[in-house]
Amino acid sequence: ADASQGLGFIITMPARCNLVIDAGNTRLKVGLFHSGELVWTDLLQDYSQLSELSLPSEYAVSGVIVSSVGVEPRRILAQLDTTVPTHVLGSSSHLPFANHYSTPETLGTDRIAAVAGAYYAFPDTHCLVVDAGTALTCDVLHASRGYLGGTISPGLSLRFQALHQHTARLPLVDAQGDVPLWGTSTADCIRAGVVRSIVSEIDTFAEQLAGQIGSVHVLLTGGDALLLHGKLICRNFVHPNLVLHGLNGLLELQCKGHYNTL
After folding, report:
1. E strand map for the chain
2. Would residue 81 show up in a list of annotated catalytic residues for this protein?
3. Integer distance in angstroms from the first to the last C-alpha of the chain?
4. What are phi and psi of 191, to 5 degrees?
5. HSE-up of 142 (CA within 13 Å, CB side)?
6. In the predicted model, what is the mean pLDDT of residues 246-262?
7. CB atoms < 10 A from the CB of 241, how many?
8. Pick the catalytic residue: 110, 131, 139, 224?
9. How much of the chain exceeds pLDDT 90, in percent?
10. What are the pLDDT digits (tens) for 180-192?
11. Which residues contact 214 (CB under 8 A, 6 or more apart)?
């Protein structure tokens, strides 16, 4: 924090920080960044909790960025008691890389923020960004060409729920427990089928992508990232706050007005 010398005492000023908000399909993740470092984070169950958000007193918010895929951004902004510059991430936001998505207005802002996080963490590197949340999204960042696109499929919980809800007798199972090559009970069969299918999906994509563009960094984020990490064959890195880091970098970019015109 900044400090100034007064009449025999020191006045400590709150450090200026960026507040980043990632509103996903099920929860909101918020973070404070000071000088590019994530200094505080919290997980909220509902956007209405933002009005009661208690930030550390040693920090003062100087800018806000919001990414939302599940809630209308205006509802989130209405919960914030702040007059600082605020940016809602969208298709017209400035990006540090070229965007080759053919329908940018339909591209989830969480996906573009995760790709931005990969861009800032591994510049000049081919990256496959895997966000394992409610949906499983895999996005391709080319070292020189920029964002190429990706895939969307059901995440782990959705796959388990679909088997339970759309069959007559299959039980609801989760990913916790052993994942055998083949199961000897119905629960084990479901767990083996669901978890191994998603692992195979990621490994196959990473292998085929490397065959086309060269060596890639596989980055995992999202609620199921740690669960999948040790089961994948491809070398991968877990970055639980990848989206938040991407949002912070994108907020800085909007403030500076520097962006890619490709």
Report:
1. 2-5, 10-13, 15-23, 28-34, 37-44, 59-68, 86-88, 127-132, 135-142, 146-154, 217-221, 236-238
2. no
3. 39
4. -60, -45
5. 14
6. 74
7. 17
8. 110
9. 77
10. 999 999 999 999 9
11. 126
pLDDT tens string 208-237 = 999 999 999 999 999 999 999 999 999 999
Amino acid 241 reads N
Give the SS3 label for residue 157. Answer: helix
Report H helices in 56-185: 73-78, 109-121, 156-165
Distance CA 252, CA 258 (A): 9
CA distance 150 to 195: 20
pTM above the 0.85 mark?
A: yes
Lowest mean per-residue pLDDT among 5-14, 60-69, 94-103, 161-170: 5-14
Structure tokens at 53: 């958000």
Beta-bridge partner residues of 221: 131
Q: Tokens for 107, please give them.
A: 């591209």
From residue 81, give the alpha-carbon distance in Å to each of 45, 66, 153: 19, 14, 37
Q: Is the pLDDT of residue 260 over 50?
A: no
Q: Which residue has the tokens 């639980």?
A: 240
What are 131's two structure tokens? Answer: 């966000």
Q: Which of 73, 59, 82 is nearest to 2 (CA)?
A: 59
C-alpha distance from residue 128 to each of 107, 124, 246 (Å): 16, 13, 15
Residues 70, 75, 77, 79: what is their CA dihedral angle, to the nearest 10 degrees?
-110
For residues 53 and 42, the answer to whether their CB atoms sit within 8 Å is: yes
